[in-house]
Write a structure and sequence with these properties.
The strands form two sheets. The protein has a two-stranded antiparallel ribbon. A two-stranded antiparallel sheet has the order 3-4. The protein is built from twelve helices and four strands, in the order H-H-H-H-H-H-H-H-H-H-H-H-E-E-E-E. It is globular and about 60 Å long. Helix 4 packs antiparallel against helix 5. With 361 residues, the chain is mainly alpha-helical.
Length: 361
């Protein structure tokens, strides 16, 4: 077995040198070649992730023109989709992950729209299999999962409008809270649903016990852990906002919210052993999920209007209970999009105030 593995490693090293030699002959000496950069970063060595300087070289192609970034992305995707080596495929996906996290806007944009002509999902590696060695067979399952995870990150980014844990789209806490506060109930549910999908995909990661000591897997799980914590913070913010809106949710919104909370709670058991190090934000999230499941489960249908309110509290049709005592007058009526005001149930609804005038939402 050991001799066979050494032969495989030797063959992989020969392939790497042959590919580099061929690319070097076809490249102008004065021009940085995307193909050469990708080849150097994605060798057949199953235990060595891309070095920091190699990752930096890949990211540097985002500092030039859009054509340069497109050339880099084309080389990287071609390498990913034509290799039969699990080691090469994992390193390609790691580079894509670094583009999401640290790449310039031009590179991220190329990733989000690639291919330009559409029609093919280049991260669909569900049929990927590398049976050359037992190690590569185990790594194949990580290739399939890691590609799905990155695909989910891209899908979630399209909903949120930014990449999780990306240095180029970092939003400070105050601005992020302000953004979430301004969302309607429907939009906020949509965002939390997309975030929970990230939790669900992470929870489907293969068992790392079979690849212990593999630095490539450790590298990708480190990246996934940072995305996980970023998703925790965004989800905590969104669910915390819904805690303030419970009294003004419609029946259908409350049902959808409970379903999302249940999906999130179902991930907890699998996620805990994957990320042993406890974080205060993670513990806060699970406590909040449990609390809101109980609170939403305790509400009742009031007056047959299809709205949910907490027992023992009088329903307020015009404002959230968070803003008790506030009086709306004709001279200070304001248009609000946020569902925490209880006014976005029907976008065209009109609230009668004192029978004299309208408050249009």
């Amino acid at each position: 077995m050991g001799r066979t593995t050494k032969v495989r490693d030797l063959i992989g090293a020969i392939k790497d040198k042959a590919s580099l030699s061929k690319a070097t002959l076809l490249t102008k000496p004065t021009t940085a070649s995307p193909q050469l950069t990708v080849l150097r970063s994605t060798t057949h060595d199953p235990f060595a992730p891309p070095h920091h300087h190699q990752i930096a070289a890949v990211l540097s192609f985002g500092d030039g023109s859009r054509a340069t970034a497109a050339s880099l992305m084309s080389s990287l995707m071609d390498r990913l989709n034509h290799t039969r080596s699990s080691s090469v495929a994992l390193k390609c996906i790691i580079l894509l992950h670094h583009i999401i996290r640290r790449g310039s806007f031009i590179l991220q944009d190329q990733l989000s729209i690639y291919p330009a002509a559409g029609g093919r999902n280049y991260l669909n590696l569900s049929d990927f299999r590398d049976a050359s060695t037992p190690t590569n067979w185990e790594l194949s399952s990580w290739v399939r999962w890691y590609a799905r995870f990155l695909e989910q990150l891209l899908s979630t980014a399209r909903v949120l409008g930014f990449f999780l844990c990306s240095s180029s789209s970092t939003i400070d806490n105050y601005r992020d809270e302000e953004r979430v506060t301004g969302l309607t109930n429907v939009d906020l549910l949509r965002e939390i649903d997309a975030l929970v999908a990230v939790f669900e995909e992470i929870s489907k990661a293969p068992d790392p016990v079979y690849v212990q000591g593999n630095k490539v897997v450790y590298e990708l799980m480190g990246l996934a852990a940072e995305d996980y914590l970023s998703a925790v913070n965004e989800t905590l913010l969104g669910i915390g906002e819904f805690r303030e809106r419970l009294s003004c949710l419609s029946f259908s919104e409350s049902v959808e919210f409970v379903c999302i909370l249940k999906r999130l709670e179902n991930c907890k058991e699998r996620l805990s052993p994957l990320f042993i190090k406890k974080k205060a934000s993670t513990e806060s999230l699970w406590c909040l999920v449990t609390e809101l499941k109980e609170r939403v489960g305790a509400v009742k249908v009031y007056g047959g209007e299809g709205r949910l309110v907490k027992p023992g509290r009088k329903e307020r049709a015009s404002e959230s209970d968070r803003f008790d005592g506030r009086v709306l007058r004709l001279d200070n009526s304001v248009r609000f999009s946020s569902g925490r005001w209880g006014l976005d149930q029907i976008g065209s609804s009109i609230l009668q105030i004192n029978g004299e005038s309208d408050f249009r939402v």
